Amino acid sequence: MGRILAFVYGALSYLVFFVTFLYAIGFVGNFVVPKSIDSGPAAATLTRALVLNILLLSIFAIQHSVMARPAFKRWWTRLVPPPVERSTYVLLASLALILLFWQWRSMTGVIWEVDNTVGQYVLWAVFFLGWAIVLLSTFLINHFDLFGLRQVYLYQQGQEYTALTFKETFIYKIVRHPIMLGFIIAFWSTPKMTTGHLLFAAVTTVYILVAIQLEERDIVSIHGMAYEDYRKRVSMLLPIPKKW
Q1: Alpha helices in the chain (DSSP H)
Q2: Region for residue 115 given its phi and psi (left: phi exceeds 0; alpha: psi -120 to 50; beta: otherwise)
Q3: Would you state the pLDDT for residue 45?
Q4: Per-domain residue ranges for the chain?
Q5: Rg, Å, the chain Cα set
Q6: Dihedral angle at the C-alpha atoms of 229, 235, 241, 244, nearest 10 degrees?
């Protein structure tokens, strides 16, 4: 019964993530969803909106980074069964994003706006390309392991979990962090950049650059020289060949 419950919990956590991911596309792009980055309520003052929005972004960043560290996982799995550890991480990250979507305060001052129709279509194409890169990259490294489904499935089947091996596949041969690159592309590609959108894009970009450093430190501790060699050959975010 415990194995079935773990699988159901993992599946529901994944469902929450996937709906949140789809909502994020509409939230950043200002379409379809009932509340987006520019359509939500405004705070009484610009300062209040700035403080609240930075706080919301910080909640996500802290949760997302702290819970991903190996030391935290070793402590956390004393309380949470290892098979559902990843699902719990994914669920809490999704809830942090849902809180951000719910409480975000719009800051609608226009920083730039592209009026040319062709330019708008190009930016929208790049916007969706960014999200496509994110989703494709998760499948290249095992989408279902990344979001906890593989762990609960193996547990439900009575099989021991085995960690994924390090490998270079497709886009990972030209950039080390295509998921993060996709997010940056999606967040900055808009025909109308408002103050709130600029804040969101700037803070998340800074967070991504910091998070990559933490993540790579952990990866090196696991994969050693194989990843060190990879870092020497492949650029972090920009698909520019490195010189030997």
Answers
A1: 2-29, 46-66, 70-76, 85-103, 117-140, 143-146, 149-156, 178-188, 195-223, 225-233
A2: alpha
A3: 94
A4: 2-233
A5: 19
A6: -30
pLDDT at 191 over 60: yes
Tokens (6 digits) for 17: 């993530």
Which pTM value belongs to this model?
Answer: 0.96
Q: What is the spatial distance between Cα 198 and Cα 128, in angstroms, rounded to a whole number?
A: 18
DSSP per-residue string spanning 106-172: ----EEEE---HHHHHHHHHHHHHHHHHHHHHHHHT-HHHHTTHHHHHHHHTT----PPPP---GGG
Please name the residues in contact with 110: beta carbons below 8 A apart, sequence gap of 6 or more: 192, 193, 194, 195
Among residues 85, 37, 38, 40, the alpha carbon closest in space to that of 57 is found at 37
**Tokens 């933490």 correspond to what residue?**
214
Backbone φ and ψ for 242, nearest 5 degrees, come out as -85, 145
